[in-house]
Amino acid sequence: MRDIDYTGSSGGLLALAFGAGWATATTMWLAVAGMVWRFFLEPRITQLQSDLQANREQIMRLETALLIHGSASVRKAIRAPECEPAADEAVTP
């Protein structure tokens, strides 16, 4: 077996081999990450978004029921934060 000259003609071949291996490994990891995203993370995010929407609708129904059937102090407490921006709508500096 001959010695490898890293600075000579063998260095270019070594760089090409390393680049090809790196590109292949990167492609493989991106494919794995894409599959993990598509089959595990994306459905869970979609489910959480639909749960969030359902929870917001339930909160609106409960607040409406409290506004209709609650005492004066409950109505006042519910109406107080209406003029304040919500935490997810607030502008951060």
General description of the model:
The structure is a single chain. The chain has 93 residues and is mostly helical. It contains two helices and no strands. It has helices at 9-69, 72-79. The N and C termini lie far apart (65 Å).
In short:
This protein is mainly alpha-helical and 93 residues long. The chain contains two helices and no strands.
The structural class is mainly alpha
The poorly predicted ranges are none
Residue share in helices? over 70%
Mean pLDDT: 85
Which of globular, elongated, flat, extended, rod-shaped describes the shape?
rod-shaped
Q: Kindly report the oligomeric state of this protein.
A: single chain
Distance between the termini: 65 Å
Number of helices: 2
How many E strands?
Answer: 0
How big is the Rg?
30 Å
Order of helices and strands: HH
Largest sheet: none
Strand content: under 5%
List the helices and strands and how they pair.
Layout: H1 9-69, H2 72-79
